[in-house]
């Protein structure tokens, strides 16, 4: 598996209104107007600023430890899933797809293959829908249990992704029938951080198709809210909710 990125993406070429960061780290996009950096918030002292300064290192440390532990502990499950995929349909076990990462760089997101090779859409623009005939019987189980996303633990270990963050989307993803960056000018702001295996939008029920305007808009809203309020405590809360809501009840298709 190649460890290199596909290369940087020109966000301006994507036709998006991209937020930029000023020297203090605040987002300049109008959606973030009025959000002051921690140093400017009354009551936030040097200890609070130190925690904020250390947070990226702490988050990365948790990502490395969590993804490495997950890969080790789940290796028997990985082998069982791989065998089931190979025995029931032709094609590779792992499906690789180019998606937006941090700062708009493209990387290959990994998933267990859940579709027939002849019908799968490598671009990802044609979104999966309920009772999608392209999905194999094993793939249907993987999607309902969300086990198809587990190979992304490797993406987290490599540094392409985080355990928690906005979900990575394919370039050209549609929202209510139009490119997402045209549908919502705040869309590319969600790429200010590493994408995650799970996120605030997902645990609040906004995942899957983005054909409806309300759902598409709410996903961006939750992603930006996560970026604005992210903390180690919030990450842990989202991870625990994911285990309960996603892997035990199943909400994918």
UniProtKB/TrEMBL annotation:
A Gene Ontology annotation in the biological process aspect, one of them, is: polysaccharide biosynthetic process
Which positions, given as ranges, span the membrane?
A: none
Q: Which UniProt keywords apply?
A: Exopolysaccharide synthesis, Transferase
Q: Which InterPro entries match?
A: Bact_transf
Domain Bacterial sugar transferase, by residue range, is 59-245
Q: What domain of life does the UniProt record list for this protein's source?
A: Bacteria
Keyword Transferase among record annotations: yes
Q: What are this entry's molecular-function GO terms?
A: phosphotransferase activity, for other substituted phosphate groups
**Pfam families reported in the protein's UniProt record:** Bac_transf
- UniProt similarity note: Belongs to the bacterial sugar transferase family.
This chain's protein is named Sugar transferase
Q: Which organism is it from?
A: Pannonibacter tanglangensis
């Amino acid at each position: 598996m190649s460890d290199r990125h596909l290369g940087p993406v020109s966000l301006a070429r994507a036709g998006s209104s991209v937020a930029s960061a000023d020297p203090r780290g605040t987002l300049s996009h109008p959606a973030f107007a009025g959000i002051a950096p921690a140093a400017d918030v009354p009551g936030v002292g040097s200890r609070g600023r130190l925690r904020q300064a250390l947070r990226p290192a702490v988050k990365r440390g948790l990502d490395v430890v969590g993804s490495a532990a997950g890969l080790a502990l789940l290796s028997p499950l990985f082998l069982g899933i791989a065998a089931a995929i190979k025995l029931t349909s032709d094609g590779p076990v792992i499906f690789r797809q180019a998606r937006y990462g941090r700062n708009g760089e493209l990387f290959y997101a990994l998933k267990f293959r859940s579709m027939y090779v002849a019908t799968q859409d490598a671009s990802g623009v044609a979104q999966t829908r309920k009772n999608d005939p392209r999905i194999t019987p094993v793939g249907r189980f993987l999607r309902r249990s969300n086990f198809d996303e587990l190979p992304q633990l490797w993406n987290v270990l490599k540094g392409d992704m985080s355990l928690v963050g906005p979900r990575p989307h394919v370039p050209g993803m549609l929202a209510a029938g139009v490119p997402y960056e045209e549908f919502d000018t705040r869309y590319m702001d969600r790429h200010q951080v590493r994408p995650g295996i799970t996120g605030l939008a997902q645990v609040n029920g906004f995942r899957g198709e983005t054909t409806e305007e309300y759902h598409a808009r709410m996903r961006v809203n939750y992603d930006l809210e996560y970026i604005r309020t992210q903390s180690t405590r919030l990450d842990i809360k989202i991870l625990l909710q994911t285990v309960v809501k996603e892997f035990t009840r199943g909400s994918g298709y």
